[in-house]
Amino acid sequence: MDRWETRLATRDSNRVVRPFEWGLEWLDLEENKADPASCIGSYAKRAIEESDRFFAYQTPSDYRLGANVLTFTSPLPSGYSENDQVTADYFPSSKSRGRAVVVLPQWNADEQGHVGLCKLMNHFGLSALRMSMPYHDRRMPPELERADYHVSSNIGRTIHACRQAAIDARACLDWLEQKGYSRLGVLGTSLGSCIAFLVAAHDVRVRAGAFNHVSTNFGDVVWTGLSTRHVREGLEGHVTQEQLHLYWSMISPASYVGRMTTRDMKSLLIWTKYDTTFLPQFSRELVNAYRSHDVPHRALSLPCAHYTLGQPPFNLIDGLSMCAFLQKNL
Predict the structure, then answer these.
(1) Where are the beta strands (DSSP E) in the chain?
(2) Cβ of 62: how many Cβ atoms within 10 Å?
(3) What is the rounded distance in angstroms from the CA atom of residue 99 to the CA atom of residue 147?
(4) Alpha carbon distance 318, 314 (integer Å)
(5) Tens-place pLDDT, residues 223-243
(6) Cβ atoms of residues 310 and 253 within 8 Å
(7) What count of other Cβ atoms lies within 10 Å of the Cβ of residue 174?
(8) N or C: which end of the chain has fewer CB within 10 A?
(9) Model confidence pTM above 0.85
(10) Contacts of 313 (CB under 8 A, 6+ apart)
């Protein structure tokens, strides 16, 4: 399994080690910028304490749907025109009965990422809205080959990109609600799973969430994961794993599990036993956090790893499990 996983994970030859940057200009800071480490640490703690404000936004006024592609301006601009034009592919089902799911693909997914899954959801009577993540596919600035600006050794820009992704996804929920959908869910894979969790934790309209690859802390995944070794290389010598754990805590699922205790929302937590990108110890920690907070959930563990989950037969088991769960709980 490890050999298969490593072969799949190292197919791409265009990973770039980028220089370390604090990226303070990406954050709405009140702290003293003279000490970036202390500044971002304080910012992270404040963002968690005031997370409703941190993930707040104004509903876009320029929704446009053409050829089943939704576009609108991101409520949290980045300054990159391509990235600030949100695109989402709409897969309506005539049998939805008001059920719709916002779908958030994995890091570096192309335009076809999760399209097959959205079509499968249609067979389960669910409408789907597949959002392109920040700096991905149609939102990618021309100087990029990969979605490096979403997860990188730039601390502030990574925070901003995840915050933007969560806010854009909530704006997608607004549009679905305007279309008459009342039973709303989220589905995310890997990076998309993290963003889907941030959305679910802060938006009471979400009735069910399928979180495909789960982990506790964003920084720990980046520091220890196989697919982010080049990001860690840019970080090393400037921050430690413990510091990164703090700096990216406001975009980490572990920070918001407690918010789920007052919610009537069902969660499907999927993890893989041999994962070298989302280490199983972190996945188990999130499942245990759900249990300790007595949050309704179902945990599904599959005998594969991160990239191999996308291969037969695991991808079929995975996709059918998520669709059946959302059909039942929406």
Answers:
(1) 64-66, 69-73, 85-91, 99-104, 127-131, 183-189, 206-212, 266-272, 297-302
(2) 8
(3) 31
(4) 6
(5) 999 999 999 999 999 999 999
(6) no
(7) 18
(8) N
(9) yes
(10) none
